[in-house]
Amino acid sequence: MLLDNNKITLLAFDKLSQNSKLCNFYVSDNSLSMISVDAFNGLTALEVLDMSDNYANIVGTFQDLPNLRDLDIGSNDLPTTAPAHFINTGSSDLYYIGLYGHNIVSVEPGAFDMVDGLDIDMYHNSLSTLEEETWRPYLEAGGTLDAGANPLICGCDIAWLFYEDQLLEQVDDYAHCTDGELLHDLDPSIFDPC
To answer: Global pTM?
Structure first.
């Protein structure tokens, strides 16, 4: 279903469950004010869900979407904390979650599916740190993280990225500290006292 760029302000999300064979749902670049993502739960054929650039208040969680591959909810109105179980679709094929362009300050552990090769795009948010409890399991599971354009403080709280398992390699090349220095350019020895 392709509904991009139509100036839609209201959509009957509660009727989506009647479309059990819905594979792709594109409703980006509209003017929706609220999106209840619980309406998608149980749409087992859904593979692509793009609701980006609506600047809508997104409520609910993404559950029971076993075939979802691509989820883009960038540039909407999300809470400042991504809660546990926010995106736990049950899909082993999920390869992209777009959460760019929000004001997310923190992400709770267990907020996302743990899928090998999953790319989470957190570009242009308000993360001041990358909490080890949240991000280590995800990166160890083979995920990658786009953390560019976030005000990362780059203290001992990110030292874990520089340990011998070199998880920093799975963080994009554009992630930088508040002083502008790229994470990948930091000298790991600055974390020795940590």
So the answer is: 0.94
